[in-house]
Amino acid sequence: MTAKIALFVDVQNIYYTVRQAYQAQFNYTAFWNEVSQKGEIVTAYAYAIDRGDPKQRSFQNFLKQLGFEVKLKPYIQRSDGSAKGDWDVGIALDAFEAASDVDTVVLASGDGDFDLLALRVKKRFNTRFEVYGVPSLTATSIIDAASQFNPIYEPLLMNRQSS
Prior knowledge:
The protein is an alpha/beta fold. It has helices at 11-22, 28-36, 54-66, 88-99, 115-125, 140-145, and strands spanning 4-10, 25-26, 40-50, 69-74, 76-77, 83-84, 104-108, 128-133, 148-151, 157-158.
């Protein structure tokens, strides 16, 4: 029997960590193909911030063509110059809700705030919880909480700039 997978991507986290660690971009096609080897992706969400930028819209359309449902939050610029655009609660709620219907939850994010989600999903639903993240920029707490940690490395990178 083929494993059913729910896939969640924290787009901002993956974008910034891959760029910082490798001066590259994340290869969503290779990622989708790798996760597909593990079973059938029955749910797939990509969480992003909407700046209304045409290049960003093109990227969002690409994610939709791959099979993701793209969830957007508006980009909020605060008066002090800082920005807000956090999807953590939305990702946690959606992943927890999906966990009872699948064999594996796959989360692409290095954010340690998801460690409790991983522990709760495994305990409550006996569902595997896999994490994809950049090893040097992924919180130890989420690596420890996951059923399996999958490091983002060369096969999942594209447009790498040579230094």
